[in-house]
Every structure is written in C-alpha cells, then in structure tokens.
Amino acid sequence: MSVHKDAKRITTQVLQEMKHNGEKIAMLTAYDYSMATLVDQAGVDVILVGDSASNVMAGHETTLPITLDQMIYHAASVVRAAKRALVVVDLPFGTYQGNSKEALNSAIRIMKESGAHAVKLEGGREVRESIERILSAGIPVMGHLGLTPQSIYKFGTYTVRAKEEEEAIRLREDAAMLDEIGCFAVVFEKIPAGLAGEVSRAIHCPTIGIGAGGDCDGQVLVVHDMLGITQSFSPRFLRRYLDLGDQMYNAVQQYVSDVRGRDFPNADEQY
Question: Distance between alpha carbon 56 and the CA centroid of its chain, in Å?
Fold first, then answer.
C-alpha cells in the first residue's frame, strides 16, 4: 500500500518512508496561492517555494536579487493553499552563507512568518555550520548539491556539474555529510545520472533530482517550465506537459478581439 495515500499531511517522516518503500517523490515549485492550490490538489508531495521566483515571477536573470522578505511573502501565499503537500522554502542568497547566526535567524523568520514546514540551502561543507545551527533549532533542512544557481557567477555557466572525478568525489562526500548531520532530503541539480543514482543508494535521506536522472528518489521541476508558461528555457531535462503559454496568448488575443468587436459581454454575461 502507498505510504502517502492515507496521510493527511506529507511530513519529512513520510518522505523517508517513501524512499524506504521505493515510492518516488513528486516535487514542484509554486509561488502564489492560486497555483499552489492546483499543485497541491493534483497530488504533489512537496511544494518548493524556490528562489527561482526571482526568475519566473520577478524577471531577474539570476536567483540572486530576491530578498528574504520577498521569499516570505511567496511562501506565506503557498502555505495558505497547501493542505497536503510539505512546503519547503529556499533561503535566498546572502541570508546564510558565512554566518550561521544569520542563517538561523533567516530560517526562523521563514518558519514563523510564513508557516512553512522546512527550508532549503545550497552547498555542502562550506555551509555545514549554518545547517547544523538551523537543525539545532528543530527546523528541517533540505540540502542542494551539484549546480547551485546562487553560485552561478563562480561557475560561470549552467553546465552539468561533477563530471570530473575531483568534483564527483566532493559531491559524494558532501552528500554523505548532509545525510549524517540530519538533512531530511537533498536536491541534486544537473549532475550525471550514474553519479546521482550511486549517491542516492548510498545515503539514507531521499534525493530529489532536477536534471540528475531517474535513479534519484524523487524529481522536481519549476512549474512554469513544465506547463510551458516560460518558453525560452528548454534544457534537456525538462519535459513540457502543456503549452500553456501558447494557450494563454491565444485566449488573451481572443478576449481583446471580443471586447473590441463588442462581442463581450453578450446578453447572457450581464445583469
């Protein structure tokens, strides 16, 4: 029997049981109440309030500009919608790196002011102290390794990470460390599928892949990408389930035409 069918609310414990039972975890992003309501009702296990909101909601080139206050605003909107899914919120750039006390304060603000269930941080050993301090306060933490978008200016490119052995070894070590100190899950972004599968089998906590192959314990996509709302972004790992951008464009064009042609509203659409 499915672990999560009878669960009123998905918890970190449920995700661990899903991994143990070989059930795949479905995760999607959401940033507002209306979208999160649909995503939650459709059965997604985890909703990520990602700092990708900086790209898809605010139009920035990178995730770096989004602020903690803005993340809390988006997260609170999603939490009000989610009746079943676990809601995880990204700590934005500059709110946890190099200062574990600030990291804890940032995480506490997200939990208190948005009502979210967990936070996500990018990085391995370099953010260990921040993660441990957040965990010590009883706040669940999801890790994130591989391509870490907040470090895009260091990488210089969005290419696949950990293809070379030195970086692959570091990723293995960092994943084991995140698992050992108590992260409830780890995201692997744009790393070789073989490496992701190997590490997923080696650590106890669930792994969530985005461009990391089918052997991760779950998958995540940006909802605007998989629905075809954002059409300029077409990486190899993305499967588009709708061309909603085209449908919305056509619908708006039809609305404009109907208004200008005096077809809308008709007799049945007025009082």
Answer: 13
Same domain, 155 and 235: yes
Tell me the C-alpha distance between 202 and 248, whole Å. 44
Q: Which of 164, 189, 198, 269 is catalytic?
A: 189
**Do both 250 and 154 map to the same domain?**
no
The structure's pTM equals 0.95
29 and 141 belong to one structural domain = yes
- Together in a domain, 172 and 269: no
**Do 160 and 65 belong together in one domain?**
yes
Q: Are the C-beta atoms of 124 and 178 separated by less than 8 Å?
A: yes
How far apart are the C-alpha atoms of 146 and 175, rounded to whole Å? 10
Neighbouring C-alpha atoms within 13 Å toward the C-beta of 145: 32
The DSSP element (H or E) to which 153 belongs, if any, is helix 152-155
What's the total number of domains in the chain? 2
For residues 234 and 135, membership in a common domain is answered with yes
Is there a catalytic annotation at residue 189?
A: yes
Strand, coil or helix: 261: coil
pLDDT tens-digit readout, 67-88: 999 999 999 999 999 999 999 9
- Report the alpha-carbon distance of residue 33 to residue 11 in Å, rounded: 20
Report how far apart, in Å, the C-alpha atoms of 26 and of each of 21, 53, 90, 206 are. Answer: 15, 19, 17, 12
Q: How many other C-beta atoms can be found within 10 angstroms of the C-beta atom of residue 119?
A: 26
Residue 192: asked if its preceding bond is cis (omega within 30°), the reply is no
**Parent domain of 261:** 243-271
Question: Distance between the two ends of the chain, CA-based, in angstroms?
Answer: 52
CATH number at residue 131: 3.20.20.60
CB atoms closer than 10 angstroms to residue 24: 14
pLDDT, tens digit, 9 for 90 and up, residues 30-66: 999 999 999 999 999 999 999 999 999 999 999 999 9
